[in-house]
Amino acid sequence: MTALDNRTERRWASLDLNEILSNWARHAPSGSGSDGAVDPEVIVFGGGIPDPESLPSAGLIAAARRVLEHDGPGALEYGGTQGELILREWLAERLNRQEDAGVSAEHFVLTNGSGQAIEMAIRTFVDPGDVILVERPTYSGGLRPMRAYKAEIADVEMDADGVLPEAFEQTVTRLVAAGKRPKLFYTMPTLHNPTGITTSVPRREAIVELCDRFVILIAEDDAYGEIRVEGQRPPSYYKIAGGQGALRLSTVSKMLATGLRIGWITGPKEIVDTFVRLRYDGGLSPFLVRTVAEFCVSGDEDRHLETVLPIYKEKRDRMLSALDERCARYASWTHPEGGFFVWVTLADAVDPAKLQDAMAQEKVIARPGTQFFAGAGGARNLRLCFSTATIPEIEEGIRRLGRAIEQAV
Amino acid sequence: MTALDNRTERRWASLDLNEILSNWARHAPSGSGSDGAVDPEVIVFGGGIPDPESLPSAGLIAAARRVLEHDGPGALEYGGTQGELILREWLAERLNRQEDAGVSAEHFVLTNGSGQAIEMAIRTFVDPGDVILVERPTYSGGLRPMRAYKAEIADVEMDADGVLPEAFEQTVTRLVAAGKRPKLFYTMPTLHNPTGITTSVPRREAIVELCDRFVILIAEDDAYGEIRVEGQRPPSYYKIAGGQGALRLSTVSKMLATGLRIGWITGPKEIVDTFVRLRYDGGLSPFLVRTVAEFCVSGDEDRHLETVLPIYKEKRDRMLSALDERCARYASWTHPEGGFFVWVTLADAVDPAKLQDAMAQEKVIARPGTQFFAGAGGARNLRLCFSTATIPEIEEGIRRLGRAIEQAV
Q1: pLDDT of A149-166, one tens digit each?
Q2: Does residue B266 lie in a domain region?
Q3: pLDDT, tens digit, for every residue of A263-295?
Q4: Chain A residues in contact with B235 (beta carbon < 8 A)
Q5: What angle do helix axes A85-99 and A286-297 make, rounded to 10 degrees?
Q6: Which of A10, A24, A52 is opposite residue B212, by nearest beta carbon?
Q7: Which residues form the domain of A360?
Q8: Domain harbouring B205, CATH code
Q9: A298, A320, A353: which is the final residue of a domain?
Q10: How far apart are CA B383 and CA B372, in angstroms?
Q11: What's this model's pTM, rounded to 2 decimal places?
């Protein structure tokens, strides 16, 4: 059709893509993990996805209709990069009710899930070579953008009460002595992914003191905070720190649906303004955000949580009792007060490589513990997600896991 | 409530935010322009926003309902970072019908509007100091991320047939001789923003030859390609280049609604795979994308274009004839075959600073030409958007502009 069709040789035809990629693109790791396409006979305790049966489709349809019928043009035009006010106001009121945080809509910026929130925090505060502190283990989806932006990652030990302030202080002191710049503490102190652990309030207070002393910004990922089925909600780092030097990152992914891709950062106004300003993607869809806001403001979100929290409690309980029955001999595990995960530690007698093979044979999938460590570690761990599978699948899946473990001894 | 409440002095309280921002954040420019909050008596020929009266709210409500009723869980779970297949298939079929491009769904990645598409192309291919070539003038929303990623920007002259290949070659030759690395040509060859000009096919062919010779990736922004009210659609750079060394960036923002935030990049599979991989935001909302896909696949998008294109033709014609009537003495302007904009050049007799004041007095807003230049330039230009205002507003607004120009002579 054009003069170029007959050229036999173009430089692009033989070009190695690596020759033209930016340095950033050449070294950055892949941005997402996945359980892959899966045989329907396999039972998957994989990604953190809400219970599919109770997704509130009807409420979302009704919310979308109300939004477009009442203000179609408003919802279908650019909304700016901070995100629609109506959702930020609802989020502020909710957080104030939960912990008297003293926030208003101006303390929130909406993001494309907590994934974009994490990336935004990193690129705004972390230069290549700066250090990000994380828990050991930590959320795998946080590690990928940290590596993409060439942060050095330093992990800090945790126990059943969360991160250890003494270990945190030692790590920071060692880093500073080595001339490093610890910039950010990325932490999931509540219903932690992958372990389900909640960091105690005294530990949080000690961490705030340390982060203030060393001028380290706390980025609290609270993706699972609303999925609490027992125990008390602790105050956020943002609250404990008096609204200074701390961000709270969250999302509707766990409390509502992963397919909406709406997250947010709560933080000091000056930092939120910086996130809003340094953004080139035009912000989230006002139609989408207003639909979710309408769902929330109408009370549907509270009703939805009243429906799903008992389901998650039941699923957690069934998984824990199945583990007791089938896996107690060669494994131990956490007893989370909510969230989506149980974290399994295998006895020394279990051969992790053999276990992988045996689980494949038995057709049961869990996330390998190694994904959740910044460095070596996790070979003797598995993360089991109890939110997505049905109760019969949970019981059958843990039965299969028990058999696989026996085979790997 | 906590031990920290009584501390009188925290380091964060007195910290200058600049001390802890990354280098990237310290130098990056603000990501969005805006016409600001506007007095309702002011007539705005500002941002490129579709006709508000004809936004297809009812069709989108129906599409959202069909999506959630037929596959709620599918639409409400993570969809991966390439974007829902159904929309990529529709886009591929459409492009093949328009220009026999030989593409399939694998040649597309969905993005948060064309804004994210532009940022993705830059960060994947451009290191700080590398050169991005642009037209003179060019889209202001493209310049901001180029500056954020510290690209050097080199602009190339254009005339009524688009960019000048001789000027392009001279610029590239000069850059290469100076040891620079021209990496990307960001261009809007069809219904160009801000001028409305369409680059001729021979010019495109010459540019492809040059970009192949110098190994420069072409990033064609085709945001306005569907908004053609007369003349022939030329083949894309991607088509002319035989699917190598060229990307096509587009969006539903102009053909449907800006508030949906769905864009895409079409490109060689290897490059698309790289974009999909190097992404940390979890991808677009499957619910949102499937809603738009359902709207498109059902034929609603074609019907919508049949409705709006005559409206845009009428608005353009009314603006051009109002300009003839009111502004011909001290200004000239482009006659675009579509898109949303007319580009005005003021006669030397007009004082641009006086014109700003007179336009504020007359209550009419247009985008100053300076926004669209990488360097100096544009002081004698205005971009007028005809898509958003009503026809009476267009006629009254141009009357006001005519009076303002007379006052600025």
Answers
A1: 999 999 999 999 999 999
A2: yes
A3: 999 999 999 999 999 999 999 999 999 999 999
A4: 1-2
A5: 40
A6: A10
A7: 43-56+303-407
A8: 3.40.640.10
A9: A298
A10: 9
A11: 0.95
